[in-house]
User: Fold this.
Amino acid sequence: MCDDVLLPPAVAAALAEYRALRNAYDVRWGEPPLSYVVQARATVFLDNRYGYWAAGLRQAAELHPETAEEDLEDHLGEVDPDRVVRDALDGDVLDNLAALRLTPEGTRLAADTRVVLGDGPFRTALLLDSGRDEPVTVVVDGVPYEVGPRGAKIVEVAESVVVDGRPVDLSPLSRRAEPATLRVRAGFPCRWSVTGANGQGWYPDGAPPKRDAHRRPYFHGDDLVLTVPAEPVTVTVTRGMEYTSAEIALTPEAGAESLVELAPERLYNAAARGWYGGDLHVHLNWMGEEPAAPALAAAAQHGEDLHVLNLVAGNVSGERVYDVEALEHWAGEDLPWSDERHLARLGVEYRNDVLGHCTAFGLREPPGRYHTGFHGTADWPPNSVALAELRELGGVTSYGHPFHTPFGDDDPPDVVLDRGRSCAAREIVADAALGLIDTLDVLNHSSIAGTAAVYRRLIGAGNRLAVTAGTDAVLSFCRRGTASSPPGWERVYANVAGPLTAEAYAEAILLGRTFATTGPWLELTVNGHGPGETLELAPGQRVEVTLSSVGPEVETLELRTADGVLAQGPPGRLTASLAVDRPTYVVAVASGGPHPRSMHRTGAHAHTSPVYLDVAGSHVARREDVLWCLAWLDRLEVLLRRFGTFEAPEQLEDHLELYARAREVYRRRLTP
Assistant:
């Protein structure tokens, strides 16, 4: 597909601007230093093996020794990320970060030696780690850098380092190898991983050096050529969660081309049954190492066989809204690489760090507002105003990465209402009661357990919300855990009537015909009816519930009602019989421990939308859940008064009026 189709002038100009920002400022692109902006600098080096939060909180405690431990997270935007990296590594070195130890006696270079092809200089990141009690100047490629006492600084090095007037031997950084050519072919677009014996990844020219949450290098496409060392390499191929993986080891011949023809097998075929999987929260650009063009999204979507891709425009911590130019150009249209099985659209992430981040799929045109509460601006208007506008523009609305704190079904609501700007979906309890939100991303990169607990409280309190999924993958990141994992590593499957279109997919979600998954296939029926349907029952009427699963990562299946676990068992098939005395719902849950097919840190998960069981014309409104939601609103009001930023009392009153209307809805549900 030609560049003028995928890169219209405004989109090309924006991409050039992002590259200039990256070159001028590093991976943070000059964004104001909120905690997750500072974290981005550190976590392009650190992964789940190393404790960013622990090291960051220790440094925050040094900066604010009088601050209570529970409030230290509010100061993570003030820490020195290079020091955090040094402290978290605790002497280790990484494949993309060598370390120069500056000791009182001299210097010592530690590195995970990389293989280099050709004669050009090898460029890598270098951690300057000082154990000296006085400042030291390090000259890297002719540029002097001062490192403070016991300090740390990360720089780029290609050719030379001089300390105390003496050059440092850089030979441990790399070794040269003879090049060979590898051609990989599956017959259809796939996700490929080509690694050497040391785990080093190899990529086609122009492909960003991506690594997923398991630290596996990858790229997308088919019939691709890449240069590799004439040494043992392993080629792995897969294609999203509906496929297995295949692997082969070989030693390419120097100066020759080796052809690898390898294809993954299907584990299940959802589209053949009318189910289409989508990722409703993906960013092209949102800081990162390599600004991403639309062509990268196209390759990822087809390589993952991801049926629906929602690319969202959104800000980071200032006024700039990334990819708004693409949204303005393509709003309401299928993106150029869409076909009968793959649909891509531009949407929005609307962001407020006190109230939560909302997403919209299927917009006909851009909204008038994208964020509140950033860079000293007011936390006003409430998210409800944005949600109403997004809906008027045709959007299906949700809350993304809703809750970061792991908690259970019986925990009180204040478990996620205890600090200021956490990005948690706090306003959802009000928005759900007033019918302003359509779904919840129960599967996300944060706490699935915590989000699922809130979701079941919300539907138990009488709110109708569909289960959805959004990974928050960021295509401009190459090495940041789940953010750099491929789009679609979690998906919401929706049962679509007829051909796949944005309108049909949105309708299926709004009807609740969905389940979300990190990989397992789930099929739930109650008397033969699936998620999204409502059964009208007489008191005491019995229903038969059946759940089946596909996927090697599943360890446990659960059937749940508003009252808790109905049945539990091993993977494959689970059945139960239920006499329904009062209105309730049935949802299905699958879980498993860490697994190569799951990129979530806690393992495998899947969760369906409900089958509702109404009794004598009444919908579920479990008293305990309604009271829980009312307690949430009371606690949210206290939090907003403490942490909210407002320019006039009337702005706070708008929030309080919203909560008052939501309380009235919940109180009516308490009345028999």
Summary: The chain has a mean pLDDT of 96.
